[in-house]
TrEMBL record:
Lineage, broadest ranks: Bacteria, Candidatus Portnoyibacteriota
Keyword Signal on entry: yes
This protein's name: Uncharacterized protein
Domain Yeast cell wall synthesis Kre9/Knh1-like N-terminal: 351-430
Entry keyword set: Signal
Entry keyword annotation includes Signal: yes
Record-linked SUPFAM superfamilies: LCCL domain
Transmembrane regions: none
Length: 676
């Protein structure tokens, strides 16, 4: 019984096994990398065993080196898998041309030994490992350090440096030094100073030790204080003047002396130890500034023009000897400006000689000033033939920059011709320093009289005249004065400024204004030229009422007439009201600035005319909105709708006098009763 049961169980187990084999699917191809799998440190020109496990259906493998950041190198292909229980092995001799860096291994399954057929199986190192190559530039390799002692040494290692107090160990940041170079390293609170040539320290790294380092030879390790030097002033943007005393200041630590230089834009320098210098010597650290009286002879270059831009450079040294080693340096972040000192001056502008001033009238005396900012002056009347000359202050103390004072000439002044000058004076009485003064006088004498005496007769045609305090220049034509309105017009006329003579107001007023009347040869319309624009004289009655003579009318071509813009915005000088002149020769008062601006008008286009000119034009009283047929008549400032053509005709109105207006103007008129 027992044997039979065993036999039955055995048969059942065999059947079950067969059944399991039939329903089990084929296993997927697979590869597992054992090493390097991350964190290892490898070196070039050495052999390393790459290990992996693969499933039995992977006959061959391809091995690739994958660089961090991209790029791959084929190590081998067609590597036969022996099915070793402990894993497959490939002895990889790491070539010397592999650059230092972080890498992973990639192993890919192959069916054919030539790598032409790939199976769906591969694996890659879980993390990066490191390859170091002392012959290539150092890279940021985690935990790579070099150890050494005060007696020197050179050791490549893989132990992370974690003890900052242990100055028998040191490291340099990758790329600052190549393997095989000798470096002197000094630990400071700012990091680690290093140099390659002896005792001069020419660099510093502040990265933590665990960031990544390369191996170097260590010749000396010790603690020292860090030299510190920074220029505070001038640091850019300042404006200094030759002759002024200005402070050069700095911050300093662990340095014995400072030398001061000045550089121009070309890099040329002067300063301590040179022929021209800011300070001839080295300033001890007990002083953190130097008060420099700026001398032109100290500035680099020759034939200098000003203003010029400069920078200050300071060097830290530990010895007063010429050529002492510089341990730290700093310069102005940006350029500052040095200017030449300019002498303050005053210049009388009016009255400057030849003028006639009338007692009882008020005049504005003018002058110009340079480099007098913040200074005050007084204006005095100078009289000749007095010993000493009499200076009578005619105005209180005022700012030199103001450039003017007003003076009403009192009746007590003695009337004399070509007897007076004015003086503008800066001295101790106006707040200046005793013994320091600036003054200017009228170039020639002027007159002060009781009344004006008009000039008899007319000046010759072409004479140029002006009033003393008015920039307007006039030319005399047929006993009329014509204003030359612009400098361009003056120059185009071929006039000379030296030919302009000053006159008195009553003499100028004795000349009527020059009127230019033009008409086209083929047109009866006569235009009056005002302010560079043409004003149509609409009727012969208006022409006669203005007192014009037909002999005054000049004929011109239509092209010349068309050069003048139509005067369509006008006002009388004594009134603020502005009128629009229609092309039909009628005037309409523009109610307000909103209406004025709604047409795109400009205030400078308004032409001043006489009251007689304005009276030439009848009122424009018929209006309609643009695009609308409704016609309104303006009566006593209100718009009234004329509802029918019959009503329009009954009022004896002219359809040709209807003027289109925009909605802004139409709405500006209050509504009146409609007319039917």
């Amino acid at each position: 019984m027992i044997k039979k049961c065993f036999f039955i169980i055995a048969i059942f187990s065999a059947i079950a096994a067969v059944s399991l084999i039939r329903i089990q699917p084929a296993s997927a191809s697979s590869i597992w990398i054992i090493s390097p799998n991350g964190g290892e440190y490898l070196s070039v020109s050495s052999t390393y065993q790459i290990k992996w496990i693969s499933s039995s259906d992977v006959a061959y493998t391809g091995i690739f080196l994958m660089k961090e950041g991209g790029g791959s190198i084929q190590i081998a292909t067609g590597v036969y898998n022996y099915g070793i229980s402990g894993g497959e092995v490939y002895d990889w001799y790491i070539p010397s041309n592999i650059a230092s860096g972080r890498y992973k291994i990639n192993i890919t399954g192959e069916i054919a030994s030539d790598g032409s057929q790939i199976v769906s199986a591969f694996d890659e190192s879980d993390n990066f490992f490191t390859i170091s190559n002392p012959t290539t530039a150092c890279g940021p390799y985690s935990d790579l350090v070099v150890t050494g002692s005060t007696s020197g040494g050179s050791i490549w290692g893989s132990n992370p440096y974690t003890d900052d107090s242990d100055f028998n160990k040191a490291a340099l940041h990758a790329g600052l030094i190549s393997a095989g170079q000798t470096a002197t390293i000094r630990k400071t609170n700012a990091g680690y100073l290093y140099n390659f040539t002896g005792s001069t320290f020419n660099g510093v790294t502040t990265l933590p030790w665990t960031t990544g380092w390369c191996g170097v030879n260590i010749s000396f390790v010790s603690f020292v204080a860090t030299p510190y030097l920074t220029l505070n002033s001038p640091n850019g943007g300042e404006n200094w003047t030759i002759g002024e005393t200005k402070r050069v200041s700095w911050g300093i630590a662990n340095i014995n002396y400072v030398r001061i230089y000045i550089e121009d834009a070309s890099g040329a320098i002067t300063g301590s130890g040179s022929v021209n210098y800011i300070y001839d010597g080295a300033i001890p650290i007990s002083t953190s500034y130097f008060d420099w009286t700026i001398q032109k002879s100290q500035l680099p270059g020759s034939n200098l023009t000003f203003p010029r831009n400069y920078k200050i450079r300071i060097d830290g040294v530990n010895s007063t000897e010429t050529g002492a080693q510089v341990v730290a340096t700093d310069r102005s972040d940006n350029s500052f400006t040095i200017r030449e000192a300019v002498t303050p001056s005053l210049s009388v502008a009016y009255p400057n000689g030849g003028e006639t001033l009338i007692k009882g009238q008020t005049y504005t005396f003018r002058w110009t000033s340079q480099n007098m900012s913040g200074k005050n002056v007084r204006v005095a009347l100078y009289q000749k033939d007095l010993t000493p000359p009499l200076f009578e202050n005619i105005a209180g103390i005022t700012s030199a920059d103001s450039g003017w004072v007003s003076w009403a000439i009192p009746s007590s002044i003695v009337s004399k011709s070509n007897y007076y000058k004015i003086a503008v004076i800066y001295d101790s009485s106006t707040g200046g320093v005793a013994g320091e003064s600036v003054a200017d006088y009228s170039d020639n004498f002027f007159s002060i009289l009781d009344t004006e005496t008009p000039v008899a007769g007319c000046l010759p045609d072409g004479s140029l005249v002006k009033l003393p305090e008015d920039p307007k220049v006039y030319i005399i034509i047929n006993c009329q004065k014509k204003w030359i309105q612009t400098t361009q017009e003056f120059n185009q006329g071929g006039y000379s400024w030296s030919s302009v003579q000053e006159t008195i107001p009553s003499a100028l007023q004795s000349y009527t204004d020059y009127v230019q009347l033009l008409k086209a040869t083929s047109d009866e319309k006569v235009y009056k030229i005002i302010g560079g624009k043409k004003l149509w004289i609409p009727t012969s009655e208006s022409f006669a009422n203005q007192g014009f003579n037909w002999s005054q009318v000049q004929e011109a071509t239509k092209a010349n007439i068309d050069k003048y813009a139509r005067a369509k915005l006008v006002r009388v000088a004594s009134s603020p009201n502005v009128y629009y002149l229609t092309e039909a020769g009628r005037k309409r008062h523009i109610l307000n600035s909103e209406v004025f601006l709604s047409y795109g008008n400009k205030w400078e286009d308004v032409v001043e005319i006489t009251a007689a000119d304005l009276e030439m034009y009848p009122d424009s009283v018929l209006i309609r909105a643009e695009g609308d047929k409704k016609v309104f008549v303006l009566i006593e400032g209100k718009k009234q709708w004329i509802k029918t053509a019959e009503a329009f005709n009954q009022l004896a109105l002219d359809w040709n006098n209807i003027a289109p207006v925009n909605t802004t103007e139409l709405n500006a008129y209050p509504e009146g009763a409609a007319i039917e």
